[in-house]
TrEMBL record:
InterPro entries: 4-oxalocrotonate_decarboxylase (IPR017630), Fumarylacetoacetase-like_C (IPR011234), Fumarylacetoacetase_C_sf (IPR036663), Hydratase-Decarb/MhpD_sf (IPR050772). It holds the Pfam family FAA_hydrolase. Residues 91-263 form the Fumarylacetoacetase-like C-terminal domain. The keyword GTP-binding does not apply. It comes from Stutzerimonas stutzeri KOS6. GO terms for molecular function: 2-oxopent-4-enoate hydratase activity. This is 4-oxalocrotonate decarboxylase.
Length: 265
């Protein structure tokens, strides 16, 4: 991975992103100031952010794959997926009220989440390896929040912003992978009882386990592996739907049940 940023630049950009996340304000995309910024630079900033969060007492509980569906790639104008880390402070309970006051551009997407029973490491990790290492899957909704002005960004900037990670809610009923066809799960997102998006899990790289394998292989490039016990989200099945206070969101998954939450100021 080719780095162009100095250590000082990485720290400076990390502080910029951390401020925008902590105080919920929009910033210009990082490549405005650093036009040569690479994907590797983005991950260097993200790794610095992760170290800071852990030092502040956050617990790293897993990872997420981002921009894994054609709908999301087209929506955001990027051509390869990304990954981000998840901490315990991003988790919200099923049916809870989620504040939008500390978010910039909140949007929801429904995802299949994997809980791992074995460590996985790349390179060369395959979807078959992922399925063999999975304890169970469950339905989840990710509340993403790009901190960039106008929700406009490029891949290096979004990776530095921890792949727009903000909040997530797991729910429904856990299922073993061998009891499901993970390629053909239908999903529906409803806001205040109206269907706003539908999709099928094959939208995520043909099979959600492919997204997890891709994530493990990116982790290997970063010198990391995926530990047993990790909670991993495989990426949005539909495009991301903007939400605002007063909206009740329910994601209904075929064979996995539903996940619900409401948004407040």
């Amino acid at each position: 991975m080719n780095l162009t940023l100095s250590r000082e630049d990485v720290v400076r950009l990390c502080e910029r992103v951390e401020g925008a996340q902590a105080r919920a304000y929009a910033i210009p995309k990082l490549t405005n100031e650093y036009p040569d910024m690479t994907i590797a630079d983005g991950y260097a900033v993200q790794s610095e952010l992760r170290k800071r969060f852990v030092a502040q007492g956050h617990k790293l509980i897993g990872w997420k794959a981002g921009l894994t569906s054609k709908a999301k790639m087209q929506q955001m104008g990027v051509d390869v997926p990304s990954i981000g880390f998840l901490t315990d402070r991003m988790a919200r309970p099923e049916n809870s009220a989620i504040s939008t006051a500390d978010l910039v551009h909140p949007r929801v997407e429904c995802e299949v989440a994997f809980v791992m029973k074995q460590d996985l490491r790349g390179p060369g990790c395959t979807a078959r390896d992922v399925l063999a290492a999975t304890d169970y899957v469950l339905p989840a909704v990710e509340i993403i929040d790009s901190r960039f002005s106008g929700f406009k960004f490029d891949l290096a900037s979004v990776i530095a912003d921890n792949a727009s990670s903000a909040r997530f809610v797991g729910g429904g009923r856990p299922r073993y992978v061998e009891d499901l066809d993970l390629r053909t799960l239908g999903v529906v997102i409803e806001i205040n009882g109206e269907i706003v998006a539908t999709g099928a899990s094959a939208a995520v790289m043909g099979h959600p386990a492919e997204a997890i394998a891709m994530l493990v292989n990116i982790l290997a490039e970063l010198g990391e592996s995926l530990p047993a016990g990790s909670f991993v989200m495989s990426g949005g099945i539909t495009e991301a739907i903007a939400v605002k206070p007063g909206e009740n969101v329910v994601a209904r998954f075929q064979d996995l049940g539903s996940v619900s939450m409401r948004f407040v100021e």
